[in-house]
């Protein structure tokens, strides 16, 4: 990991208008939790709000973060100037992944814990389970969207299609999709920590392994793609 690249990626993430959207997503989710808690009894509506966080807010934050640290440089061609420096391309990809992943944890996974605690303060273990499961899902989502940002200029559009169609629509229609659903892997980890939560049925070992393999492979693919920018100079 390169500290200079981490600093530049952090500036790109927080210094653009996209950074405001990143902050708005968890704020809206937390405010929704507070409103539900004020209007209903403790724990009522918790599952619905947290499901919204898992299926929409968390992947949206990961998508915006991953595309913000890499996408603009690919779009405007400045990535070529960055890659002209004597830095290993996979180090570039990993450094940017760390920044996007940190944002996904802080603004995507952590709010799940906060929302769960706000809606049911009597069960902190469940709040922790939501957060840990969210962290696993955030890791996988960030890796996937990083790879998309390196592969295509339309990473945000493709990422939204993945979230809405694959993770949302098809995931609810076909049970077999759960084996390749990033959000489901996180939910399985959450269930392993608190059996009262929904059990997707893929198994803790599979969920952790699949998330790790996807994130690692995606970062490697992004680094390999960045190396091709230098070789061809076509972007």
What's the SSE pattern? Answer: HHHHHHHHH
CA gyration radius, whole angstroms:
18 Å
Q: What helical percentage do the residues reach? A: over 70%
Distance between the termini: 24 Å
Approximate shape: globular
Overall number of domains: 1
Strand content: under 5%
Indicate the structural class.
Answer: mainly alpha
- The total of helices stands at 9
Query: Got a strand count?
Result: 0
On the 0 to 100 scale, the average pLDDT is: 82
Low-confidence stretches: 230-235
Largest sheet, in brief, is: none
What's the SSE blueprint?
Elements: H1 3-14, H2 17-39, H3 46-76, H4 79-83, H5 89-119, H6 124-151, H7 155-173, H8 182-193, H9 204-232
Short description:
This protein is an all-alpha fold and 235 residues long.
Could you list some keywords that capture this structure?
single chain; mainly alpha; about 240 residues
Describe this structure in words.
- Mean pLDDT is 82; it is low at 230-235.
- The chain is an all-alpha fold and 235 residues long.
- The chain starts with a helix and ends with a helix.
- The radius of gyration is 18 Å and the shape is globular.
- The protein has 9 helices and no strands.
């Amino acid at each position: 990991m390169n500290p200079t690249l981490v600093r530049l990626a952090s500036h790109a993430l927080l210094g653009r208008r996209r950074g405001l959207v990143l902050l708005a997503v968890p704020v809206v989710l937390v405010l929704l939790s507070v409103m539900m808690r004020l209007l209903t009894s403790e724990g009522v509506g918790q599952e619905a709000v947290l499901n919204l966080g898992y299926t929409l807010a968390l992947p949206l934050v990961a998508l915006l973060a991953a595309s913000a640290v890499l996408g603009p440089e690919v779009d405007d061609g400045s990535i070529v100037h960055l890659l002209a420096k004597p830095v290993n391309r996979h180090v570039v990809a990993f450094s940017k992944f760390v920044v996007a992943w940190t944002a996904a944890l802080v603004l995507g996974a952590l709010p799940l814990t906060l929302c769960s605690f706000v809606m049911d303060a009597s069960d902190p273990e469940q709040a922790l389970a939501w957060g840990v499961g969210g962290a696993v899902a955030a890791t996988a989502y960030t890796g996937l969207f990083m790879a998309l940002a390196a592969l295509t200029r339309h990473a945000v559009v493709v990422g939204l299609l993945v979230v809405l169609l694959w993770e949302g629509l098809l995931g609810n229609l076909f049970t077999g999709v759960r084996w390749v659903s990033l959000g489901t892997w996180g939910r399985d980890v959450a269930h392993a920590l608190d059996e009262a939560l929904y059990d997707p049925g893929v198994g803790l070992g599979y969920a952790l392994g699949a998330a790790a393999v996807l994130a690692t492979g995606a970062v490697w693919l992004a680094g390999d793609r960045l190396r091709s920018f230098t070789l061809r100079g076509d972007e």
